[in-house]
Amino acid sequence: MPKCPKCEKEVYFAERVSSLGKDWHRPCLKCEKCNKTLSPGSHAEHEGKPYCNNPCYSALFGPKGKFLQCGNGSVLPCCRAIFQLEHHMA
């Protein structure tokens, strides 16, 4: 019987969600930073631990500097001029 990587208790088939190549209890699959409940396949991973894509993973492990958040939730680096233009026109 597999053990949940978060609580280390046995995971029964009826309560199992699979993510990161492991079986979890649904309530145990949470972001390591903000504790938000995650859905299998819709989150990021760092050193075997789950993180929500935005903002936690991006803030902790993404490139540092000025960023622009797009409508689809992705975070893209942008040049200083574009960043300043966006804030000047707002």
From TrEMBL:
<dbReference type="GO" id="GO:0008270">
    <property type="term" value="F:zinc ion binding"/>
</dbReference>
<protein>
    <recommendedName>
        <fullName>LIM zinc-binding domain-containing protein</fullName>
    </recommendedName>
</protein>
<keyword id="KW-0440">LIM domain</keyword>
<dbReference type="GO" id="GO:0010468">
    <property type="term" value="P:regulation of gene expression"/>
</dbReference>
<keyword id="KW-0479">Metal-binding</keyword>
<dbReference type="Pfam" id="PF00412">
    <property type="entry name" value="LIM"/>
</dbReference>
<dbReference type="InterPro" id="IPR001781">
    <property type="entry name" value="Znf_LIM"/>
</dbReference>
<dbReference type="GO" id="GO:0008630">
    <property type="term" value="P:intrinsic apoptotic signaling pathway in response to DNA damage"/>
</dbReference>
<keyword id="KW-0677">Repeat</keyword>
<feature type="domain" description="LIM zinc-binding">
    <location>
        <begin position="2"/>
        <end position="63"/>
    </location>
</feature>
<keyword id="KW-0862">Zinc</keyword>
